Predict the 3D structure of the following.
Amino acid sequence: MPETSSFATEAKFTGPRVVALGIAAIVLILAVAAVFLFLNLPDANAFNARVEQLFVENDALTGEAEIKLLEILAQSGTAFSDTLTSYRVVIFVLMLFATALLVAALVFLVVIVAMNRRMSEIERAGIQVNSLIISREERTVYLNNMEFSLTEAAIETLSVLAEARMDDDVLTGAELEAVISGRHASDCEEAAGATRIKRLRDALGNQLMSELLVKTIARRGYMLSIDKGVIRMV
């Protein structure tokens, strides 16, 4: 038992640690990529600097056409600088979105894996029911802290299964139908009992819970997969 508890504790702390390391790795990788990308982008003022150099080195260009050309080049440099700045902003926003999406994907993946493991544990261990109270008059079932209002047929089916469970019996579909209808089992069809089981599961609503609560035993029949000591009929 101590070894099992130790393993469970380690698993409990390993999950968040893996998520934290994964998120840190994603942020670090994207941060390095962003720095590398921004460092290799051309300088926004490179064009303006080149145009300024042309003004300085060609001060002899005093004609109207030459001055007009230099003004056009200066305006083009300014436009190029503004465009490159907007590109930097767009790239920065895209990197943020990429980081958020990758982090969300990692978290969802870990959550899905954890849920699958939990579902597997539930399927192996069965549903944990601490209290099952059946009230025929109110046609209500109290399962742990959950309340279910059932139809008369569904409450009868559940009551018969509960009584059979308290006697450690497994009922076939025909036997279930016989108890409810008051006929002999040989006069009842297996499909009728199976239909009652299906309607009971539909009435309970939660597919996982109803499938685990009302257990189907191959070639034998149906039973409640709970401890008979928690069942109360009122």
Notes: Residues 38 and 88 are 8 Å apart (CA to CA). The first strand starts at residue 132 and ends at 135. Confidence is low (pLDDT under 50) at residues 1-12. Residues 2-125 form one domain.
